[in-house]
Amino acid sequence: MFAEILVAALLVISGVFALVGSYGLIKLPDLMTRLHAPTKASTLGVGGALIASMLHAIVWRNEVSWHELLITLFLFLTAPITANFIAKAHMADKLKSGDLPPTGTDRDWATLDLSEEPVQPVMTPPGQPGRPS
Amino acid sequence: MLRKFLPHPGLSALLILTWLLLVNDFKWGSLVFAAILSVAIPLLTAPYWPDRPMVKNWLAAAEFMLIVIYDIVKSNITVALIVLFKPKSQIQPLWVTVPLDLRTPEAITVLAGTITMTPGTVTADMSADGRALLVHCLDATDADAIRDDIKSRYETRLMRIFE
Amino acid sequence: MIAAALTFAFACYGIGVLICLWRVIFAPSIPDRVLALDTMVVNMIALIVIYGISIGTGLYFEAAMLFAMTGFVSSVAYAKFILRGDIIE
C-alpha cells in the first residue's frame, strides 16, 4: 500500500515537471531562457519516472532492476553537454561581445574569441604527481 | 608494469560496474567478460586521454553529490513556479561571470555540469584562457550574490575533492 | 491508483512531446529546433519507461538506453554543425 502511494506520487510528480519543462519551451521569451526548461524535464521528470520504475520492479515483479540507475546517470552526464553546445551555437549565431559581461581576464569568451592564439586548454601546473605529460 | 596494463584503474572499475549494471544480474561469466573489457578499453583509448582525474577525497565527493541532488530538487520547484506563474515581461534574465580558482580540466567540467544541472542557471561558455565561466540565470537581479553562491557552495567543495 | 497515475503521466508526457513537436516546426531559430528535439528525446525516454511499467516488463530498457545515447549524439552533432559547419574536425 505504501509502495503503491509512493510509486503513484513519483509518477505524478515526474509528469508534472516534464509538462512544465515542455511548457517553458513555448512560454519563455528567448533561446537562452528556454534552455533552462529541458534541464528540469531531464532531472526531476525522467528521474522520477525511473525511480518509480525501479520501485515497481522490486515490489510487484520481485526482481531488482539496476538499468534505470544507468539511464539516470547517463542523462545527468550528457544533459549539461548538450545544453552547453546549444548555448555556444546560439552565441556564435546571435550574440556579440558587447551583449555579454566582461570576462575579467585578458581574453574574450571562447566562442567569440577571434584572436589567432589557440583557445587555451586549462594547463596543469608542471611537476604535479600522477600526471604524466 | 601495472601502469602499462591499467592506465586508468578508476575507469576500469567503472567499466566493470557499468557492464554488470547493463547485464542487470550477477553472473561469474559476465564478471569475467567485464574484466576483459575493463582492461581492453582503457588500453585502446589511453592515447586520447593522457591525464587521469584524481579524486583525492571520496567523503567530500559523496557530500558534494548529496548537496547537488538537494539543490536540484529545490531549484526545480523554484524554476517550475517561475515558468508557470511569472508573466513573461517580469522575467529578468541575467549574465554572470564566475572567475575560476579551479585549474584542473576535470574539476572545471564537473563545476560547469553542476551549474547547468541545477535549473535556473546554465553554463554557456568559458573564457579563452580558461579562467572564467559565463553563466546565464533565468530570473535574477543580483549577479554578485549568484557568483558568491556558486563559488562558496560548489567551487570550494570541488577544490577539496580534486586539488 | 497506479493505473490512474500512469494515465496521468502518459498524458503529461504526450502533451510534452506534442509541444516540442510544435516548437520543432515553428521555431524562431535553428538552435531552438535542436533544443526542442533534445527535449523531445528526453520526454520519449520517460514515455518508454512508463510504458514498461504499465505492461509490467523490463524489456524496454534497452530501447530507452539506446534512445538516450543516440539522442545525445545527434543533438551534439546538430549543434556542432551549426557552430562550425562541420562535425568531425
Can you characterise this structure?
- The complex is a heterotrimer of chains A (133), B (163) and C (89).
- By secondary structure, chain A is mostly helical.
- Chain A has one domain.
- Chain A is 62% helix and 0% strand.
- Chain A contains 4 helices and no strands.
- In chain A, helix 1 runs antiparallel to helix 3 (36-60).
- The radius of gyration of chain A is 21 Å and the shape is elongated.
- Chain B is mainly α.
- Chain B has 2 domains: 2-48, no CATH class; 58-162, no CATH class.
- In chain B, 60% of the residues lie in helices and 11% in strands.
- In chain B, strands 1-3-2 form a 3-stranded antiparallel beta sheet.
- In chain B, helix 2 crosses helix 3 and helix 5 packs across helix 6.
- The longest helix of chain B is centred in the middle third of the chain and has 28 residues, at 58-85.
- Chain C has 89 residues and is mostly helical.
- Helices cover 82% and strands 0% of the residues of chain C.
- Chain C contains 3 helices and no strands.
- Chain C has helices at residues 2-25, 30-54, 61-84.
- The longest helix of chain C is centred in the middle third of the chain and has 25 residues, at 30-54.
- The radius of gyration of chain C is 15 Å and the shape is flat.
- The N and C termini of chain C lie far apart (53 Å).
- Chains in contact: A-B, A-C.
- Chains A and B meet through helix 1, helix 3 and helix 4 of A and helix 2, helix 4, strand 1, helix 5 and strand 2 of B.
- Chain C: Belongs to the CPA3 antiporters (TC 2.A.63) subunit F family.
- Chain C: One of its GO terms (cellular component) is plasma membrane.
- Chain C: InterPro entries: MrpF/PhaF-like.
- Chain C: It comes from Gemmobacter lutimaris.
- Chain C: This is K+/H+ antiporter subunit F.
